[in-house]
Amino acid sequence: MAGHEYSEPAVWYKGANDYWWIGVCNNCEQPVLVHGEAWTIYPTPQPPPSDFRIPEKVRKDLIEAKITFSVQAFRACAVMARRAVQSACIDKGATKSDLIDQIEELTSRGIITKDIRNRATAVRWVGNDAAHPNSVQVTKEDAEDILSFGEQFLHAIYVAPETANDLAFRKDNAPKN
User: Fold this and answer.
1) What's the rounded Cα separation, in Å, for the pair 6 and 135?
2) Closest by alpha carbon to 154, among 114, 111, 110, 108?
3) For the chain, does the N or the C end have fewer beta carbons within 10 angstroms?
4) What does the pLDDT read at residue 7?
5) Number of domains in the chain
6) Residue 27 belongs to what domain range?
7) The pLDDT of residue 3
């Protein structure tokens, strides 16, 4: 990596297949302690940033969902992903009180497609289960999917329209040959 110099390898061998080494975080470029083939990393890596085109009040919920996922708090991740979806529905003018109705409202108004509606509904289901005491567990895979679906929902209603507008503006203002 440019700008980084190492005088000798920073590896500690505890056993034949058990070793620790010093790495560099891909996000913050600070040193991290890594066990084996990244089986464990200290400190826990921070999640990648969320798109700035998502309004701050909604983006904060998404960031919190990402942080809770990064520390393996999977129920909390699902709850915060659900909250981000509901915050976005309200921000986009949904007037109903329940998230299921808010999602349908955005679908009927053409703000989201049926495919995006289905992803938002999955976030709602898992987020509801995570928020209420019951026997349903939120696995790492569930949380990862729900976090991804929630972020896709936010991209569909905030990032994609703005990107399309930017492209149209550039096309309309491009020099004519």
Assistant:
1) 50
2) 111
3) C
4) 61
5) 2
6) 1-46
7) 57
